[in-house]
Specification:
mainly alpha, about 80 residues
């Protein structure tokens, strides 16, 4: 999104107000992307930041592991 807003700023060079607004939005989206990446890394999910990462596949795998762990706990309680 940041790149899109930068392109809009460049195409609005003859309209200073539009260009300023677009640069502000570009900075905002760039900052949000950086902060999101930092939080994902801090949470230990670096594997989600690779170019070909698929969030749906990651959640599906993670859920399968958690389901298995949950079932083990349930069976331990029943014994």
């Amino acid at each position: 999104m940041g790149q899109t807003w930068l392109a809009l700023a460049e195409s609005s060079a003859n309209k200073p107000g539009y260009a300023a607004y677009a640069r502000q939005k570009a900075a905002m989206f760039t900052r949000m992307a950086r902060e999101t990446e930092e939080r994902i890394r801090a949470a230990g999910y670096d594997e989600l930041l690779v170019n070909d990462a698929n969030l749906v596949d990651w959640v599906t795998r993670r859920r399968a592991v958690e389901d298995e762990e949950f079932e083990k706990l349930v069976y331990e309680v029943e014994d």
